[in-house]
Write a structure and sequence with these properties.
Elements (H helix, E strand, L loop, with lengths): L3 E6 L4 H11 L4 E7 L7 H4 L4 E5 L5 H8 L4 E4 L5 H17 L4 E3 L19 H10 L5 E6 L2 E2 H6 L4 E2 L4 E4 L6 E5 L1 H13 L5 E4 L3 E4 H12 L4 E4 L3 H12 L9 H10 L22 H7 L9
Parallel strand pairs: 1-2, 1-4, 2-3, 4-5, 5-6, 6-11, 7-10, 9-13
Antiparallel strand pairs: 8-9, 10-12
Helix pairs in contact: 1-7, 3-4, 4-5, 8-11, 9-10
Amino acid sequence: MSTTRIGVAGITGKLGSLVARNLLSHPSAHVQGFCRDKSKLPDSIRSNPKVSTVEGDSSNLEAARSAVRGCSAVICCYLGSNDLMIDGQKVLIDACIAEKVPRYIPSDYTLDYRPLQPTDIPSKEPMFRIIEYLEGKPIKGVHILIGAFVQTWWTFLGIWHPKEYKLNFWGTGDEKWEFSTYNNAAQYIAEVALDSSASGFLKFRGDFISTKEIAKLLQNQYGDMPQMQSKGSLESLRAACDEARKGNSVSYQNLPLFYSYYIQTGKAYMGDDLDNDRYPNVKPESMEDFLKANDVRKMQVW
């Protein structure tokens, strides 16, 4: 059996390690990891004979070249500052080109940002810059969109308050969210990396569901309907976003405003033209599936 070498940059992170696990479930896959400290890898991955790892900083071109050498595709799982997400990825792309890697999967894994302006959601600007950087380069960019991570909705967007058993949301509660779980996203990323014909933008979704529908799932799961409280209309949410932009005051703490606005208004929806069916062996995980497997009443919220 021939070996397919797939590079995973940022392999020690949450998503990177999940991607590696899913790649290793394929008999032909060999994972070449790139990270700053491989001791942070779980033993089950670090000791796997089908895994090799190169340590190095994201700015180190020679280390990056060593990590991607011989790969048929490289997956970026970086998550961090704009310096990392733009400059770090540029180094990785340059390394791929130098080593003649045919395909590069940028660290997107998010809502469909293409209809937006680069500054609409501040944390998405690097994605536009990487698209620009890939233009005209002798490497194919493969962009994977998955909506919002289910785990992010529960822990980061300021909606779920487990101690009060309350959902505190913007809008009416009827607005829809597009979701994927981390595990599902990792499954699709691995499949795309191993599919040499995959290129361009691919869209995957586990669920399309409203806050009110999520409340009903909570009731079904735990027996009680959560408290429901609206913070205001979507117009008020837009005003809050505009206020956060004043004086360049956008921060990690107010990013949930932008995510909530651009998803719930449908401006960043992926739509129904999805690529789930391209990989029928991956079962989409719904919000109901997630709730059955995870007790969100015990989740730590940020």
